[in-house]
Amino acid sequence: METPGLSVGAVARRLGVSASTLRTWDRRYGIGPSRRSEGSHRRYDASDVARLEVMHRLILQGAPPGEAARVALGGEAGREEAREPRAHGAGGNRLALSTAPARTRGLARAVMALNGPVVTGTVREAVARDGVVRAWEELISPVLRSIGERYAATGEAVEIEHFLSNAALAVLAEVTAPPPHTQTRPVLLACAPEEQHSLPAYALGAALAERGIAGRMLGARVPEKALRDAVERIGPGAVFVWSQMPYTGDTGVLARVPGGRPAPRVIAGGPGWARPLPEGVRFAASLPEAVEAVAEALGMPG
Length: 302
Ligand code: B12
What we know:
Pfam families: B12-binding_2 (PF02607), MerR_1 (PF13411)
Strand order of the largest sheet: 4-3-5-6-7
Radius of gyration: 25 Å
Protein name: MerR family transcriptional regulator
Largest sheet: 5 strands, parallel
Bound molecules: cobalamin
Domain HTH merR-type: 5-74
Strand content: 5-15%
Structural class: alpha/beta
Number of domains: 3
Order of helices and strands: HHEEHHHHHHHEHEHEHEEH
Organism: Actinocorallia libanotica
CATH architecture of the largest domain: 3-Layer(aba) Sandwich
InterPro entries: Cbl-bd_cap, Cobalamin-bd_sf, DNA-bd_dom_put_sf, MerR-type_HTH_dom, MerR_fam, Meth_synthase_dom
């Protein structure tokens, strides 16, 4: 007599996961079929499938598999709801990215789990496959923004913010390894004095490297004098300065970049800068815009 219930392959197709994932969930989290066929094959009945559907949905929403399994095995709708975030992006164990592509949700999930190898691997793979600009705009930035929203709503997720920032900085720095020089004058990249947000400047350094442009990265919190000294020392063709926070956006820093012959093009980026910007300073509103502004200043427009 045939054993009733669905095979592992049938359930895998229904959920859109692989059969080996289902076997792993069974072994690791004890969420599997209630019975087996005579040949010891897994046979899933309707309630097994319903539990797996709950687990799968929670994972897609950003829950770590272990927790998703615990909730699914508990089986009560109320408990599942209890795991839902309290408000837009606030609380809960996930970030507000439910409509984002699977890869973005996957990164958010790995970030929440502080899973270093997966976070670094996902970012590295995206940069290698899609290039820095797409990886930054379509993968890294949405997750950073959702972390920011969560922080704004709850005051939490600072460890998550640091974790993703450090992983992303490491990958962007790998890409920024000096390419063969294709321009005559270097490019200086810096953050405004006391400005700790440096990721966008690193993203620019990496995107420029992809274009064969070697940026010299001074990083976060560059004192005005240090910026001026660096400009005088290397005579850059372009100087990019990032300000995220209003209290780091003193435009005098931009106005006082030393002239030289010819004077470097000064490019400002970030929402922190006060307005108006000093005469001659160009504002870049996005990563691709900043790449173009630097390339133009060096006489190598795309
Ligand atoms: C990562 C992060 C940090 C990290 C930075 C690590 C690093 N090495 O960069 C750390 C932990 C250090 C940090 C510290 C702080 N942070 Co913070 N942080 C962030 C976070 C999550 C991402 C920052 C980022 O890289 N943004 C870039 C992208 C992802 O943002 P975006 O909005 O998509 O970008 C826009 C533009 O900037 C532009 N753009 C994007 N990328 C690029 C690239 C280039 C080259 C250009 C030209 C343009 C450009 O296009 C977009 C459209 O306008 C933001 C959240 C956020 N939404 O930005 C908070 C956020 C900026 N931080 C915030 C705060 C409050 C702080 C702290 C004060 C917290 C604290 N209490 O200590 C400190 C400030 C420290 C300081 N003095 O600088 C607030 C700022 C609110 C405000 N405007 O006042 C934010 C917005 C979070 C929030 N919603 O509350 N932070």
